[in-house]
Write a structure and sequence with these properties.
single chain, 216 residues, alpha/beta, 12% strand, oxidoreductase, FMN, Flavoprotein-like_sf, flavoprotein, EC 1.7.1.17
């Protein structure tokens, strides 16, 4: 049985959040195609992780036998997150753009789960695991747009997940998500709707393809 790790990070609830609607579409297809599988769901907005501090960081670079009680507790959180990642056959991560980058809650998850010598380094433990990043944004930062140079979500996630952790990264990019609620973007609503529909189709297609790939 295959396991899907689903990470949501939007502060908005399902039904409002663009990224949550896409990860939900991904999960729905995954479960339809693979009803006997497992889904590990972390909602980082509802249940945020502590930001990495000196205690948790130092624990990763010291002998567990020497850990203080505080280091033991802090490192146990990191180990659990690493185990969830290592257990996953596929990962889907919601990474909405907030102030040109990812939510701080998602950054906290990354800082905690990236452990040198385990999930990162010469032989990352999740190397090759397919990960789909749902990089939603209120405007457009696509090549050729005025804000192309401010696209820090896809570039960062590709670098950290692919370059740092050796994972197989793909993106779904729902854009112009502010068009329905921003009067100044009213003429962009048709483009938003096209992007939204395409994102849902891609989510279903990627989930279906992954299930088939893992079953082969």
């Amino acid at each position: 049985m295959a396991t899907l790790l689903l990470i949501d990070s939007s502060v908005s609830p399902e039904g409002v959040s663009a990224s949550r609607s896409v990860t939900a579409a991904f999960r729905k297809t995954w479960e339809e195609q693979h009803p006997e599988g497992t889904v590990i769901h972390r909602d980082l907005a509802a249940d945020p992780l502590p930001h990495l501090d000196g205690v948790a960081a130092s624990a990763a670079f010291s002998d567990p036998a020497t850990h203080t009680p505080e280091q033991q507790a802090a490192f146990a959180v990191r180990v659990k997150l690493a185990e969830e990642l290592e257990q996953a056959d596929a990962v889907v991560i919601a990474a909405p753009m907030y102030n040109f980058t990812i939510p701080s809650t998602l950054k906290a998850w990354l800082d905690q789960v990236i452990i040198m010598g385990r999930t990162a380094g010469e032989a990352p433990s999740a190397k090759g695991t397919p990960v789909t990043v749902v990089a939603s944004r209120g405007g457009s930062y696509a090549p050729g747009t005025p804000r192309e140079g401010m696209e820090y979500v896809q570039n960062y996630m590709e670098a950290v997940l692919g370059g740092g952790m050796g994972m197989d990264v793909e993106f779904i990019v729902p854009e112009l998500t502010m068009a329905p609620v921003n009067p100044a973007m009213a003429d962009l609503v048709p483009l938003y709707e096209t992007s939204r529909d395409k994102a849902h189709e891609e989510a279903a297609a990627k989930a279906k393809a992954l299930v088939a790939r893992l079953a082969a």
